[in-house]
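Continuing the series of single-chain predictions for the mutant panel. This is the parent chain; the variants come on the following pages.
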Amino acid sequence: MTNQENDGAWFLPKRFGFGAGLPIAWQGWMVVAVHVAVIVGGALLLRSQPAATIAWALITGLLPLPLYAAKTRGGWKWRWPN
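Parent structure:
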């Protein structure tokens, strides 16, 4: 039996669907906060250039997804509700 308290996960899996759910460790909350701050900060700096703002939001939005997947308890897979 695995000890879920010490499994190194930062995020719970979603209960339905594919991806990460809410953070369960301070590292997860920090990653989400920095992720949002980088997206919003870049968008504010680039607000006079709509195409650059969209490109920034897409690139920075997708870049950390492998980290989210690696740190989600049980990994990313499709889940059905119980």
